Amino acid sequence: MAATSEQPLPAPLSAEALFDAVGPAYEVAFEEQTDQDASVDWLISELAAKSIRPAKTVDIGCGTGRPVCSKLADAGHDVLGIDLSGAMITSAKERVPNASFEKLDIRDFNPPADSYDVATAYFSLIAGVTQDEIRGFMAKIFGFVKPGGLLVWGTVPLPVESEQIAWMGKPITVSSLAPEGAVDAVKKAGWEVVKEVQGVFKPKGAEAGICKQEDVWEETHLYIYARKPE
After folding, report:
1. From residue 106, how far is each of 28, 85, 217 by CA, in Å?
2. CATH architecture of the domain formed by 15-50+61-227
3. Using CA atoms, how far apart are residues 219 and 203, in angstroms rounded to an integer?
């Protein structure tokens, strides 16, 4: 995320409209994220070590389904991807036929308690949400993951509350938490934090045809690996 421009921004898009507009090009812009790939590999390794297969998994804000849903499904797991963008869900169904997908906002996703082995949320709890909602999502996910189950949350860790920015040239309202605030939100929801990984990544928004080169900046990414206590 970046600071707002001195020029007035157009009215912000909803998160749904934003990702409908970006569509499958998002996959190109955000490919080759080695830290994200490593986190999915960790999940697959942990599940294999416990001989959990197929594990029931959900990816919140699944986008096109790649690489997260595809890697988990290819490893033999039962994968559901949810996203509030119809364009993303259409693409995911085409790209990852061995997983299931639903057009659904996390606010409306209410599975039974202790019903999932794994939950992931990569950069999906930023646009169109508040800081309080982010904290609430950590608690909600905790409720539907089984004891011993796993969470990976990827975010852009900045202390931002309902701020309008231009993200890859598109106006959007975002919220996020600073690194220590994000970790604290996970812990207060009841999770045991296993690992924290920070890195930087510059999306290929111009190469993907989403925006101009000057509309792209380097982002700090934080991945929190967590486990629900037995």
Report:
1. 24, 12, 28
2. 3-Layer(aba) Sandwich (3.40)
3. 8
